[in-house]
Specification:
The chain has 2 domains: 3-91, Orthogonal Bundle (DNA polymerase, domain 1); 105-220, Cytidine Deaminase, domain 2. With 228 residues, the protein is of the alpha+beta class. It has 9 helices and 5 strands; from the N terminus they run αααααααββαβαββ. Strands 2-1-3-4-5 form a 5-stranded mixed sheet. α9 (187-201) links the parallel β3 and β4 (206-214). The chain is elongated and about 65 Å long.
């Protein structure tokens, strides 16, 4: 048997063992990543790559939510592999969002906070999203309201009001991120919240909450008693 054939047989046997461990729910995190990579890099030993990614980014969640540019910069990760990893991220976000379409968020706030965390993780610029809710607190729409710079994004309260009326929304959730880790609400964030709240109140639309995602943490203005 030629050396390359021996290597191929070893890799196939190893990958079959990974598949069997997956079915038995016995995979370690780095092995799960290795299994995933084996589907997009079929003819290469991806164990060093999987372990390198775990060391560089710190864990599966950090890898999946990392910016695609950061993944592509990692030696051994091409564009196709990075897209494959980010597609898993998109599937996770879509899964949470589909629950929000049907579940009253007031009774399952964890789904909402997980959705916000997944949606905003890995962003390198500030974004403002507005989540419009019906009278049963179900998600009508998640609109990307604006995208700004690393530390600023514009908000347009009248545009939010216009969109809320179009959707016949009864309440909204403001969501934005701070790409700088572990930074809570700024004075400007709270002032903006109050301006939007005052404008929406003229047509009996409420702000359910304002979420801020920073450094893997979801801050709630309501829970921090910042919503008057």
């Amino acid at each position: 048997m030629k050396p390359e054939e021996k290597d191929l047989n070893f890799h196939e046997g190893h990958r079959e063992r990974l598949r069997q461990k997956f079915l038995a729910d016995k995979l370690a995190d780095y092995e799960l990543l290795e299994l995933l990579l084996s589907f997009v890099i079929p003819r290469r030993d991806v164990r060093p790559l999987a372990r390198g990614l775990m060391k560089q980014f710190g864990g599966l969640y950090q890898i999946i939510t990392a910016p695609i540019e950061s993944l592509i910069e990692f030696k051994g990760i091409g564009q196709n592999t990075a897209i494959f990893i980010k597609a898993i991220h998109k599937i996770m976000v879509a899964g949470y969002k589909s629950n929000l379409d049907n579940v009253t968020i007031f009774h399952n706030e964890k789904i909402l906070t997980n959705y916000c965390l997944l949606l905003m993780s890995g962003k390198t610029k500030e974004e403002i999203h507005i989540l419009y809710l019906d009278g049963y607190m179900r998600l009508l729409a998640d609109d990307l309201h604006s995208m700004g710079t690393v530390d600023w994004a514009a908000a347009y309260p009248r545009e939010i009001l216009k969109r809320a009326l179009e959707l016949n929304a009864k309440s909204i959730v403001i969501l934005h991120n701070h790409p700088t880790p572990n930074t809570s609400f700024s004075t400007e964030d709270i002032d903006l919240t109050e301006r939007i709240k005052s404008l929406l109140a003229t047509v009996d639309i409420e702000i359910h909450d304002h979420y801020l995602v920073s450094g893997g943490i979801v801050y709630s203005a309501r829970n921090m008693f910042l919503l008057k």
